[in-house]
Amino acid sequence: MDLSFALLELASNSLDAGATLVKIRLRVGRRACLKVSDNGRGMDDETLKRACEEGFSGKGSSGLGLYKTAKYANQSGGSLKLRSKIGKGTSAILKARQFETGDMASSLAVILDDESDIVFKARIGLKRIKLDTRRLRSETGGISLSDARKKAVIKKYVNENLK
Ligand SMILES: Nc1ncnc2c1ncn2[C@@H]1O[C@H](COP(=O)(O)OP(=O)(O)OP(=O)(O)O)[C@@H](O)[C@H]1O
Ligand SMILES: [Mg+2]
Predict the structure, then answer these.
(1) 87-109 tens-digit pLDDT
(2) CATH number for the 3-162 domain, one of 3.30.565.10, 2.60.120.10, 3.30.390.10, 3.30.1050.10?
(3) For the chain, domain boundaries
C-alpha cells in the first residue's frame, strides 16, 4: 500500500457513488495529507459508521477498500477521517507519517473517464501540479479522456511535473 493506491481506493468509491466531480488534494513533505472529496450520493450515518469495517460494502463489492486504507493510514502513524452527507457528497482525509508516494500518475490515469471530472492539486516537496479535466475538456473541445492514448499523455504530463 502507498498513497497512490489509497488515492485509487478513495476516488474509486467516489466514482461508484455517482460523483460527477472528484477533487483530490495531495501534500507531501515529511508528512503526507491526501484529501479526496466528491459530490456523489453520500452516506447515511449507519453506512458512514460501518464504512471502514472489514468486508462491509453497501454496493455488493468486497468491502475491503476503506478497511485497507484506514489500516494503512493508522500503521503509517496517521489517520483516515471520513465525512459525508447524504445527497451532498463525501470527503476523506488521509494523514500519514511514514509513507511511500507511489505512482500517482498511474492512479490518476485509471480514474479518468468521461462521466466525471477530476481536479487534482498536488504539492510534493517544492513541485506543484494542477490538473483540471473540466478545463482540459473545454480547451480541447471535449475530447474523451477514457481513451488509452490520451490517458498516457496525461500520465506523462503528471509524471514530468512531479519528478
Ligand atoms: N465516497 C463515497 N460515497 C458514498 N459511499 C461511500 C463512499 N466511500 C465509501 N462508501 C460506502 O462505504 C462502503 C465501503 O467502502 P469500501 O471501499 O471499504 O468497500 P467497497 O467499495 O464496497 O468494496 P471494495 O473497495 O473492496 O471494492 C461502500 O460500499 C459504500 O457503501
Ligand atoms: Mg471501495
Answers:
(1) 999 999 999 999 999 999 999 99
(2) 3.30.565.10
(3) 3-162
Residue with cell 453497501: 58
Model confidence, pTM: 0.96
pLDDT of residue 39: 98
At residue 11, does pLDDT exceed 80? yes
Cell numbers placing 33: 495529507
User: Hey, which of 7, 57, 68, 118 would you mutate to test ligand 1's pocket, going by the most ligand atoms within 8 Å of its Cβ?
Assistant: 57
**How does pLDDT run across 13-45, given as a tens digit for each residue?**
999 999 999 999 999 999 999 999 999 999 999
Buried b (16+ CB within 10 A) or exposed e, 26-36: bebeeebbbbb
* Whole-number Å distance between alpha carbons of 16 and 147: 20
Give yes or no for residue 63 CB within 6 A of ligand 1: yes
Nearest CA to ligand 1 atom 7: 13
